Amino acid sequence: MAVEGLRSPAPGSENTVGPECDRTSRLDSARLRPPPKFTPEKESERERREEKRREEKRREEKRREEKRREEKRRDELLERERDILWSRRRRRSQKNRQQRRNKQKEKRGPRVILVSASNLTHTRKEKKKEKKKEKKLCRGTRLSGGHRFSGRVELLLLTECRGKTES
């Protein structure tokens, strides 16, 4: 007991200055407070409350899960409806385009280009040439008069025999 300031104050002494005082007063108040009583009744009530809380959490989680599923279903249905509507619109627009084309074709009427081929049965070489011409008659084939054959053109093949024209 060489240094008196280092010793802790004795219980009941009135040291009212510094952190040591606060600590000791807290410890004293904790000692004076009676310990919490654990009776079986209180324990069972606490367990019931905890069980209720757990049950409520489970219900809440189920509700959230159900909401998620419902939103997912709704989104899928909306997506399907959107796809159906878009496909209908596409079909309708294609149909309208086709109808417009057909009307324009009807307005124009059949284009008739006269292709004259004279003396088809003259020689073998000309026959071969004529066969080749028949094979090549597809879109883009050059015809007489500077025209080109497109799929919608009606062809009249005129044959000239000894100055007479037969259609």
UniProtKB/TrEMBL annotation:
Name listed for the protein in its UniProt record: Uncharacterized protein
What is the species of this protein?
Pleuronectes platessa (European plaice)
**Compositional bias of type Basic residues: which residue ranges?**
87-110, 122-139
Annotated spans, Disordered: 1-74, 87-145
Stretches of Basic and acidic residues bias are at 20-31, 39-74
